[in-house]
Design a protein that fits this description.
Layout (H helix, E strand, L loop, with lengths): L1 E2 L5 H9 L17 E2 L3 E3 L2 E3 L2 E2 L10 H17 L7 E6 L7 H14 L7 E6 L6 H13 L5 H5 L3 E4 L4 H12 L7 H7 L9 H20 L1
Parallel strand pairs: 1-6, 6-7, 7-8
Antiparallel strand pairs: 2-5, 3-4
Helix pairs in contact: 1-6, 2-7, 3-8
Length: 221
Amino acid sequence: VMGVTGSGKTTFINCASESDLLVGKGLESCTVDVQMSKPFYLDQRMVTLIDTPGFDDTNRKERDILTHISAYLANTYEQGVKLTGIIYMHRISDTRMTGTSRRNFRLFRELCGKDAFKNILIVTNMGKDDELEACNERERELSTDDKYYKPMLDGGARMVRHNGTPDSAKAIISQLINKGEVTLVGQREIVDEHKEFSGTTVGKELTRVLKEQAEEYDTEL
């Protein structure tokens, strides 16, 4: 389960698995390391959810976070533990997709690779009942604009909405657990191709992202 800081990753995992992973309440990130939920049965399958820190963590640099996540995923792959799905959480209550959110998604996309798109669910979260029409419009824009999620959706990913209940979380996970196993390009590059993080697709994308940020900063000055 991935997404920006504060998008509801840990809450979603606790909701589905009845785990008690610590949830952030303030402005700072709470999830600082990759952590696993309690295993639970769903549709006669044993499921374990993996909670990850946001790439925009308030306490650590993006490179440190991505290196940590990549190393964890590479280690599980090397041990023969395969993923069946990836969930990307999006806070639909946000009125616009910020530059930080777009950069996060670029990195997520390059970590996964196109071959994994069919095993990805983009889960919109934190919608408000009194803003249903606005949330519908935001989802429409996110799914039809090439700047946002359209390319991934065209590649086989799907967008679904989480309403905050355990039944909703489990129904979302049910859409993934019977899919075939998937290997992320980031896992394959580190384990099978013996690349350092900086030489992986996501590592190179991060270098581009950081260069863009530096140039934007210089322009503002």
